[in-house]
Design goal:
Elements: E1 2-6, H1 11-20, E2 26-30, H2 37-50, E3 55-57, H3 62-70, H4 80-96, E4 102-105, H5 113-117, E5 126-129, H6 131-134, H7 139-147, H8 170-179, H9 185-194, H10 204-212
Protein backbone atom coordinates (compact mmCIF):
# COMPACT_ATOMS: atom_id res chain seq x y z
CA UNK A 1 0.00 0.00 0.00
CA UNK A 2 1.26 3.49 -0.86
CA UNK A 3 2.58 5.52 2.07
CA UNK A 4 1.74 9.23 2.36
CA UNK A 5 3.47 11.38 4.98
CA UNK A 6 1.68 14.54 6.07
CA UNK A 7 4.23 17.34 6.34
CA UNK A 8 2.80 20.46 8.00
CA UNK A 9 5.99 22.49 7.86
CA UNK A 10 6.65 22.24 11.61
CA UNK A 11 9.31 20.52 13.67
CA UNK A 12 7.08 17.62 14.72
CA UNK A 13 6.06 16.58 11.22
CA UNK A 14 9.64 17.12 10.00
CA UNK A 15 10.90 14.81 12.77
CA UNK A 16 8.33 12.20 11.79
CA UNK A 17 9.31 12.46 8.14
CA UNK A 18 13.03 12.10 8.84
CA UNK A 19 12.47 8.98 10.94
CA UNK A 20 9.72 7.32 8.89
CA UNK A 21 10.58 8.18 5.30
CA UNK A 22 11.27 5.38 2.85
CA UNK A 23 12.19 5.82 -0.79
CA UNK A 24 8.98 6.04 -2.77
CA UNK A 25 6.93 7.63 -0.01
CA UNK A 26 4.96 10.76 -0.89
CA UNK A 27 5.69 13.64 1.50
CA UNK A 28 2.91 16.19 1.07
CA UNK A 29 2.75 19.78 2.30
CA UNK A 30 -0.61 21.48 1.69
CA UNK A 31 0.07 25.20 1.67
CA UNK A 32 -2.80 27.41 2.85
CA UNK A 33 -0.87 30.53 1.91
CA UNK A 34 -1.17 31.73 5.50
CA UNK A 35 1.99 30.15 6.91
CA UNK A 36 4.69 32.24 8.56
CA UNK A 37 7.51 33.13 6.09
CA UNK A 38 10.01 31.21 8.21
CA UNK A 39 7.91 28.07 7.76
CA UNK A 40 8.62 28.17 4.04
CA UNK A 41 12.34 28.68 4.73
CA UNK A 42 12.29 25.69 7.08
CA UNK A 43 10.77 23.51 4.36
CA UNK A 44 13.46 24.63 1.90
CA UNK A 45 16.16 23.86 4.48
CA UNK A 46 14.57 20.50 5.24
CA UNK A 47 14.74 19.42 1.61
CA UNK A 48 18.32 20.64 1.24
CA UNK A 49 19.68 19.02 4.42
CA UNK A 50 17.64 15.81 4.47
CA UNK A 51 17.49 15.15 0.72
CA UNK A 52 13.81 14.28 1.07
CA UNK A 53 11.52 15.77 -1.61
CA UNK A 54 8.41 17.60 -0.42
CA UNK A 55 5.39 17.81 -2.70
CA UNK A 56 3.86 21.27 -2.26
CA UNK A 57 0.17 21.57 -3.01
CA UNK A 58 -2.23 24.48 -2.81
CA UNK A 59 -5.95 24.90 -3.32
CA UNK A 60 -6.51 26.92 -6.49
CA UNK A 61 -5.96 30.49 -5.35
CA UNK A 62 -5.33 29.57 -1.72
CA UNK A 63 -7.18 30.78 1.36
CA UNK A 64 -8.41 34.03 -0.19
CA UNK A 65 -10.02 32.36 -3.20
CA UNK A 66 -11.68 29.76 -1.00
CA UNK A 67 -13.53 32.30 1.13
CA UNK A 68 -14.43 34.33 -1.95
CA UNK A 69 -15.91 31.22 -3.54
CA UNK A 70 -17.81 30.30 -0.39
CA UNK A 71 -18.80 33.91 0.33
CA UNK A 72 -18.20 32.94 3.94
CA UNK A 73 -15.53 32.93 6.62
CA UNK A 74 -14.66 29.73 8.49
CA UNK A 75 -14.92 29.50 12.26
CA UNK A 76 -14.56 26.99 15.08
CA UNK A 77 -17.89 25.38 14.18
CA UNK A 78 -17.53 25.45 10.38
CA UNK A 79 -13.90 24.73 9.59
CA UNK A 80 -14.27 24.26 5.88
CA UNK A 81 -10.78 25.73 5.46
CA UNK A 82 -9.08 22.61 6.86
CA UNK A 83 -11.24 20.26 4.80
CA UNK A 84 -10.77 22.14 1.52
CA UNK A 85 -7.21 23.47 1.83
CA UNK A 86 -5.68 20.39 3.43
CA UNK A 87 -7.71 17.19 3.30
CA UNK A 88 -9.45 17.49 -0.07
CA UNK A 89 -6.50 19.17 -1.78
CA UNK A 90 -4.24 16.25 -0.87
CA UNK A 91 -6.94 13.75 -1.79
CA UNK A 92 -7.47 15.30 -5.24
CA UNK A 93 -3.74 15.16 -5.94
CA UNK A 94 -3.48 11.50 -4.94
CA UNK A 95 -6.48 10.60 -7.07
CA UNK A 96 -4.80 12.32 -10.03
CA UNK A 97 -1.98 9.79 -9.58
CA UNK A 98 -4.46 6.93 -9.44
CA UNK A 99 -3.94 6.49 -5.69
CA UNK A 100 -7.19 5.83 -3.84
CA UNK A 101 -5.98 3.55 -1.07
CA UNK A 102 -2.99 4.44 1.09
CA UNK A 103 -1.45 4.68 4.55
CA UNK A 104 -1.65 8.21 5.92
CA UNK A 105 1.15 9.11 8.35
CA UNK A 106 0.06 11.78 10.85
CA UNK A 107 2.38 13.53 13.33
CA UNK A 108 0.33 13.34 16.51
CA UNK A 109 2.65 12.82 19.48
CA UNK A 110 2.41 10.64 22.58
CA UNK A 111 1.53 13.73 24.63
CA UNK A 112 -1.45 14.45 22.33
CA UNK A 113 -3.75 11.43 22.87
CA UNK A 114 -6.83 13.66 22.68
CA UNK A 115 -6.05 14.50 19.06
CA UNK A 116 -6.08 10.86 18.11
CA UNK A 117 -9.29 10.13 20.01
CA UNK A 118 -11.01 13.01 18.19
CA UNK A 119 -9.64 12.07 14.80
CA UNK A 120 -12.30 11.53 12.16
CA UNK A 121 -11.64 9.07 9.36
CA UNK A 122 -12.71 10.75 6.12
CA UNK A 123 -12.32 7.79 3.75
CA UNK A 124 -12.40 4.05 4.37
CA UNK A 125 -9.59 3.51 1.88
CA UNK A 126 -7.23 5.61 4.02
CA UNK A 127 -5.46 4.01 6.98
CA UNK A 128 -4.20 6.57 9.50
CA UNK A 129 -0.83 5.78 11.08
CA UNK A 130 0.46 7.62 14.18
CA UNK A 131 4.13 6.61 14.50
CA UNK A 132 5.14 9.26 17.06
CA UNK A 133 2.29 8.32 19.36
CA UNK A 134 3.08 4.62 19.03
CA UNK A 135 6.77 5.19 19.78
CA UNK A 136 6.15 7.45 22.80
CA UNK A 137 7.64 10.57 21.20
CA UNK A 138 6.82 13.80 23.06
CA UNK A 139 7.24 17.48 22.29
CA UNK A 140 10.19 17.74 24.69
CA UNK A 141 11.98 14.93 22.86
CA UNK A 142 11.43 16.61 19.51
CA UNK A 143 12.65 19.98 20.80
CA UNK A 144 15.82 18.29 22.09
CA UNK A 145 16.34 16.65 18.72
CA UNK A 146 16.28 19.97 16.86
CA UNK A 147 18.84 21.52 19.21
CA UNK A 148 21.47 19.33 17.53
CA UNK A 149 20.48 19.96 13.93
CA UNK A 150 22.26 22.48 11.65
CA UNK A 151 18.91 24.12 10.86
CA UNK A 152 15.57 24.55 12.61
CA UNK A 153 12.26 26.42 12.53
CA UNK A 154 13.02 29.75 14.20
CA UNK A 155 9.55 30.78 15.33
CA UNK A 156 7.52 30.03 18.48
CA UNK A 157 5.46 26.88 17.89
CA UNK A 158 2.24 28.87 18.36
CA UNK A 159 2.96 30.57 15.00
CA UNK A 160 2.88 27.26 13.17
CA UNK A 161 0.22 26.47 10.55
CA UNK A 162 -1.93 29.51 9.65
CA UNK A 163 -0.23 32.28 11.63
CA UNK A 164 -3.38 33.81 13.20
CA UNK A 165 -5.78 30.89 12.83
CA UNK A 166 -8.99 31.43 14.81
CA UNK A 167 -8.48 27.99 16.38
CA UNK A 168 -5.68 29.52 18.43
CA UNK A 169 -8.27 31.58 20.28
CA UNK A 170 -8.75 35.30 20.86
CA UNK A 171 -6.41 35.54 23.84
CA UNK A 172 -3.55 33.86 21.99
CA UNK A 173 -4.06 36.04 18.92
CA UNK A 174 -3.96 39.19 21.04
CA UNK A 175 -0.62 38.12 22.48
CA UNK A 176 0.79 37.26 19.05
CA UNK A 177 -0.28 40.66 17.72
CA UNK A 178 1.71 42.45 20.40
CA UNK A 179 4.87 41.18 18.73
CA UNK A 180 3.66 40.68 15.17
CA UNK A 181 0.90 43.27 14.51
CA UNK A 182 1.46 43.06 10.74
CA UNK A 183 0.13 39.49 10.68
CA UNK A 184 -3.40 40.79 11.21
CA UNK A 185 -3.61 42.66 7.89
CA UNK A 186 -4.80 39.79 5.70
CA UNK A 187 -7.26 38.53 8.33
CA UNK A 188 -8.77 42.02 8.70
CA UNK A 189 -9.01 42.23 4.91
CA UNK A 190 -10.92 38.90 4.85
CA UNK A 191 -13.48 40.20 7.32
CA UNK A 192 -13.91 43.48 5.46
CA UNK A 193 -14.29 41.69 2.13
CA UNK A 194 -16.85 39.11 3.29
CA UNK A 195 -18.61 41.32 5.85
CA UNK A 196 -18.36 38.74 8.63
CA UNK A 197 -15.97 37.97 11.48
CA UNK A 198 -14.01 34.84 12.41
CA UNK A 199 -15.10 35.21 16.04
CA UNK A 200 -18.65 35.89 17.13
CA UNK A 201 -18.97 39.54 18.17
CA UNK A 202 -15.36 40.67 17.72
CA UNK A 203 -13.17 41.40 14.71
CA UNK A 204 -9.46 40.93 14.10
CA UNK A 205 -9.22 44.72 13.84
CA UNK A 206 -10.48 44.98 17.43
CA UNK A 207 -8.12 42.23 18.58
CA UNK A 208 -5.24 44.20 17.08
CA UNK A 209 -6.37 47.36 18.86
CA UNK A 210 -6.52 45.51 22.18
CA UNK A 211 -3.01 44.20 21.60
CA UNK A 212 -1.60 47.59 20.66
CA UNK A 213 -3.15 49.27 23.70
CA UNK A 214 -1.86 46.59 26.10
CA UNK A 215 -5.35 45.85 27.38
CA UNK A 216 -4.64 42.20 28.02
CA UNK A 217 -2.26 40.05 30.07
CA UNK A 218 1.01 39.29 28.34
CA UNK A 219 2.23 35.71 27.88
CA UNK A 220 5.44 34.15 26.59
CA UNK A 221 4.77 33.08 22.99
CA UNK A 222 7.07 30.10 23.45
CA UNK A 223 4.83 28.75 26.21
CA UNK A 224 1.35 29.74 25.08
CA UNK A 225 -0.95 27.09 23.61
CA UNK A 226 -3.88 27.28 21.17
CA UNK A 227 -7.39 27.30 22.59
CA UNK A 228 -8.54 24.45 20.32
CA UNK A 229 -6.93 21.53 18.54
CA UNK A 230 -7.04 21.70 14.77
CA UNK A 231 -6.36 19.12 12.08
CA UNK A 232 -3.94 21.20 10.05
CA UNK A 233 -1.01 19.04 10.99
CA UNK A 234 -2.80 16.02 9.62
Amino acid sequence: MKRVINFSGGKTSAYMTIHEYREGDLVIFCDTGREHPKTYKFINDFEAFENIPVIRLQYNGGFEKLIEKRKAIPNNFKRFCTIELKVKTARRYLRSLGINKYQNFVGFRADEPQRISRRKQHWKQVEDIFPLYEKGITKAMINDYWLNKPYTLNIPSILGNCDLCFMKGKNVIINILRTYPELSDKWIEDENKIGKTYFNGISYKTLKEIAQNNLFKDYDLNEIKPAFDCACTS
